[in-house]
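Lecture notes, unit on protein representations.

Consider one protein chain, 164 amino acids long.
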Amino acid sequence: MPTETKPERNLAIVMTADELLSHWQGHRRLTRRTIEAFPEDKLFQFSIGGMRPFADLAFEFINMAMPIVHGVATGKWEKFAGEKPTTKAGLLQLWDEQTAAIDKAFPQIPPHRFAEVDNAFGMYKNTGIGTIQYGIDNEIHHRGQGYVYLRALGIEPPHFWERE
């Protein structure tokens, strides 16, 4: 259960919860197109400098997304229980299922939970909004790795600004 709430500050609200969800889902659409750009074998095998293959990174995003939404909504931080896909089609199917689940669950987050501080997964002390932003930032960061991989493979990655 949350132990504290960040004090309210006299700041303008710059984004509603619906706008935050839309922003996040835009990044998820872009990451999905990044997954699609990989040849099947390279998605699961290719790496540079000892970094993980992009399929592993995409599964990391899956491991984080719904557990973050659920944790922020309820204060209960449970790990993702699904199996790691072994094909691009399986990864994309799981991605799409989770995208729909996020769309359904995110609006259920009570407004006060965005400001409450939790110890997410027993390790990350942050506000609900901070934890959501961390998940988005993590996806953007690792998607950049995917872009490097694609370029090394001679494949043009999707334009980063096209999130529709």
